Amino acid sequence: DAKTTQPPSMDCAEGRAANLPCNHSTISGNEYVYWYRQIHSQGPQYIIHGLKNNETNEMASLIITEDRKSSTLILPHATLRDTAVYYCIVSPPAIYNQGGKLIFGQGTELSVKP
Amino acid sequence: DGGITQSPKYLFRKEGQNVTLSCEQNLNHDAMYWYRQDPGQGLRLIYYSQIVNDFQKGDIAEGYSVSREKKESFPLTVTSAQKNPTAFYLCASNPRQNYGYTFGSGTRLTVV
């Protein structure tokens, strides 16, 4: 079973920031938080990951709470092309995770509206 | 550009037939994976391989088989023993470190 809880759906206005929450209260010390998104009928796309510090890349920012029990993915200026299902996944590094498999939950369906 | 290529994009199979889905990567990644996705559902792991000539069953391996004769290739065979094969199949790879996984664009298999 997935170790994360996400809202099933969210709306966001185009040009505004999209803040997607994720709860992972049972996260272990060596587990990272990964975010992926899946646009309809395509393969998932890696967005960002982090351990305990906040992270930022060209796509998004990841804010992890100090107790690491929850995180927020931030898309700073959402566009219509950001409409997708967003998955939050916790997983140890592949070297410690038998096969490095990812356990996907249901994700959050983000709809960016004009 | 490096990436994962899955082919074909759409595949139709008659009941009782075996079919093989192709997955090729030029990322020099050690580990490769096959996932299945049903409508409105998350991904479920079928098989994975961490190194050439070695692979392990995932959570739903029954009715599937794989091979890993080359680092670049990880084909999946859907056998006639798979009772409900109609689904979206995704191949992925990673370099066995804590990096993001790269996914292919998927193969949609329909049994007719």
Residue share in β-strands of chain A: 35-45%
- Radius of gyration of chain B, Cα only, in angstroms? 13 Å
The radius of gyration of chain A is: 14 Å
Work out the helix count of chain B.
Answer: 0
**Largest sheet geometry of chain A:** 5 strands, mixed
Share of helix among residues of chain B?
Answer: under 10%
Low-confidence stretches of chain B: none
Number of helices of chain A: 0
Query: How would you describe the oligomerization state of the chains in this entry?
Result: heterodimer
Question: Structural class of the helices, strands and pairings of chain A?
Answer: mainly beta
Mean pLDDT of chain B: 91
Beta-strand share of residues of chain B: over 45%
Write a concise keyword list for the protein shown above.
heterodimer; A: 114 residues; mainly beta; 5-stranded mixed beta sheet; 4-stranded antiparallel beta sheet; 9 strands; 0% helix; globular; B: 112 residues; 7-stranded mixed beta sheet
Record the SSE blueprint.
The complex is a heterodimer of chains A (114) and B (112).
Chain A: E1 9-13, E2 18-23, E3 32-38, E4 45-50, E5 55-56, E6 61-64, E7 70-75, E8 84-91, E9 108-113
Parallel strand pairs in A: 1-9
Antiparallel strand pairs in A: 2-7, 3-4, 3-8, 5-6, 6-7, 8-9
Chain B: E1 4-7, E2 10-13, E3 19-25, E4 31-37, E5 43-51, E6 54-57, E7 64-66, E8 76-78, E9 87-94, E10 102-103, E11 107-111
Parallel strand pairs in B: 2-11
Antiparallel strand pairs in B: 1-3, 3-8, 4-5, 4-9, 5-6, 7-8, 9-10, 9-11
